[in-house]
Amino acid sequence: MSEARSEEMTIELEQLRAAIEAMSKAVVFDADPSDFRAALLALAEKEQP
Amino acid sequence: MIDWSIASLTDTADAIASGKTTSRAVVDACLERFDRIGGTLGCFVELDASAARAAADAADQAISAGQHIGPLHGVPLAHKDMYYRAGRTSACGSRVRSDFVPSETATVLARLDRAGALDIGRLVMVEFAMGPHGYNQNYPLCRNPWNPDHIPCGSSSGSGVSVAARLVHGSLGSDTGGSIRGPAAANGVVGLLPTYGRVSRHGAMPMSFSLDCVGPLARTAKDCARLMSVLAGEDPRDASSLPNKVPDYEALIDAPGPLPRIGLARGYFDENLHPEIAAALSAAADAFVRAGFEVVEIAVPSDLLSEIAEFQPIVMKSEGAANHMNTMRERQEDYTFEVGHRLHAGFFLPAAHYIRALKLRAPCLKHFAAAVFSQVDLVMTPVLGIPVPTIAETTGKRGKDYLDMVAALTRNTKMANYLGLPAISVPCGFTGSGLPTAFQLLGRPLSEAMLMRAAHRYQAVTHWHMRGPAVVNASRDDVGLPDVPLICPL
After folding, report:
1. What is the pTM for the complete model shown?
2. In Å, what is the CA distance from B84 to each residue of B97, B121, B225, B244, B352?
3. For an interface test with A, which of B130, B261, B354, B359 has the most A Cβ atoms less than 10 Å from its Cβ?
4. Nearest residue of B to residue A49 by CA position?
5. What is the C-alpha to C-alpha distance for residues B44 and B345, in angstroms, rounded to an integer?
6. Rounded CA gap, B11 and A5, in Å?
7. Cβ(B38)–Cβ(B52) under 8 Å?
8. B244 with A44: Cβ contact below 8 A
């Protein structure tokens, strides 16, 4: 990796570190990624305007 | 005499269908404009004028022969260079794919073909759709038609520019964190992010399969409604596509009945909001009231939205890195500097964090919906919180300040992708620098009809969508910028 890319990567990784920290507070033991589609459909607009 | 080449998509399609004009006349006018200003704007990768004229002639002959015609018959469109058409190169803005010729056609292109639309060329995009500024080092600069010293935003940069400059009547963009809504806002056109799964992504370049959405950019909400009626619907070739029936969006935008309640977002979206954009948003809220809507202020869950803004890049970068793992190893030198390190960062994300980000989507969606959609039907926010930056501020820059500014361009848009919610970007004025600004309406899943109906009603009492950039009528000499090749091949 070039020196310039390494410098930019450091900033990118710092942004991701902050993102991971933000996420680490959440409790997700019982959640399943596929719940998302079910939630999307459950919350869907039912009636046309 | 009406110049149908600068009219809206729906008006032009109806004029062609009724014989008020011909597809050939419209295409000729668009190509003439492209010859004048295409070299300044740098928005096309490929445009085959002969093929476009031949397709227009065929469309006109079909009308003369009394054949059945679709709702987009003879209307010139062009799309972001990431929608596959069998036998045609789809470079995705990259050297890595500069010789990629797909063997099948994207579902969305096939649906547009069946509706009679003309696909006249491939449009410039940010490399692999990974950047909100619109800059792609592989091409000459793609410029904002309202002021060529400013960026068009991206990643659907060519789509926003070509529609705003009246080179085509509509375009497909893609949106993983704001790539339809950002360019729509920056170029003064309407852009719709559909609900996740509402429009098939089969045959579209993947960026982040959990977030990617395909949607239209056009002049008006009504144009988007006609395009969405063609594009939306289940596709057995896209497992993420939703099975729900597709309504007649265009009929619904004029339907009578109670209007949705709009919540003007307070918190998160108005933090550090530029005062000129805040004023435009306030005026837009007043226009909604004039149009008969109830508009209330609503406190959005700022902490949740701040977290979502952090989670979205984890998903996007993890999935992006997975897509590019082989080519990043084998052809790293073929990636541009900026996209290269952005993708590279994804390799440092542990799988456990990526999966946590996916697990959190449903709880976040439920939390947001409970906080917001229990009070209002639609949430109104700015699209860009800052005026459209200049090319000098963004091009070839590095460092934290630059990356923070890039992140700011998607600050108000990326949560919709993470939550899978539909959103529409609608022009609502200009900032002091003469560049367009826009508001965004967010709705419940599958509320596209409501979003477009509200935007249509707004456009019925305002005039921003009828304004065009001066460059549309400029001569080559008027433009006063170096002429770059009209087409931007890799």
Report:
1. 0.96
2. 12, 12, 23, 25, 33
3. B359
4. B450
5. 30
6. 49
7. no
8. yes
